[in-house]
Amino acid sequence: MNNTENKNGKNGIDTKGISLAQSASYNKLKQNNSDWAAKRVQEDPEFFTKLAQGQSPEVLWIGCSDSRVPANEVTGTKPGEVFVHRNIANVCVHSDMNMLSVLDYAVNVLKVKHVIVAGHYGCGGVAAALTSKQFGIIDNWLRHIKDVYRLHANELDRITDEKAKVNRLVELNVTEQVYNLCKTSIIQNAWMNRTDLEVHGWVIDLSSGLIKDLGVSASNPHKLGYVYEFDNETVAAN
Ligand SMILES: [Zn+2]
């Protein structure tokens, strides 16, 4: 039996082994969706007609996959207002085609004005990177945060309170990821052509819901240093 033809002769995956509790939580999502859609139409009969016409968000949010930090809720924005990319511990890796594709589309097609790296205190990914434990394949992803730890080990290893140590690395990680974004050819080329693009670093405090702006915003490449700042022209490599 394959997953397009089950015992009942119907198309779809065989879900017979699923418990009542499991299907209840799943069905609740569908019910919530239909309630949500009905409420939106009640508030504004044209809501979905307008939404279906297209998007013009001014913000790209690069946040953690953690279920407690949804971009729209945290910023009080509606569907259509924030373009979103999330991964474990909001890491921006210059060879990650997923992140680069989102960034390029947001900056060059949607023309967002703000790119925000949003971490959060108590981040499990950051906490894991501070330990020597193995967690599986994710260890290779967390290596990027270990690299940030290595850069700031002098400061971090002086912090004796474990929570405080994690939270400081959360801030340093966001700052480093802002720097990583600014180093990309995508951001640097955009800055050569426009003056209305800023990259910011935020940390969300889960205990208050409030955002801390780390004050690391950048709107030009001048602080990148000579190693990373590109010239204003492309040279074909051969
Ligand atoms: Zn996290």
From TrEMBL:
Reaction it catalyzes: hydrogencarbonate + H(+) = CO2 + H2O
Taxonomic classification: Bacteria, Pseudomonadati, Bacteroidota, Sphingobacteriia, Sphingobacteriales
PANTHER family referenced in this protein's UniProt entry, alphabetically: CARBONIC ANHYDRASE (PTHR11002)
Protein name, per record: carbonic anhydrase
Organism: Mucilaginibacter rigui
Name of encoding gene: can
InterPro entries assigned to the protein according to its UniProt record, in alphabetical order: Carbonic_anhydrase, Carbonic_anhydrase_CS, Carbonic_anhydrase_sf
Pfam families: Pro_CA (PF00484)
Keywords, comma-separated and alphabetical: Lyase, Metal-binding, Zinc
Record carries keyword Nucleotidyltransferase: no
EC number, UniProt record: 4.2.1.1
SMART domains named in the record: Pro_CA
Co-factor requirement: Zn(2+)
Taxonomic superkingdom: Bacteria
Gene3D superfamilies in alphabetical order: Carbonic anhydrase
Family stated for the protein in its record: Belongs to the beta-class carbonic anhydrase family.
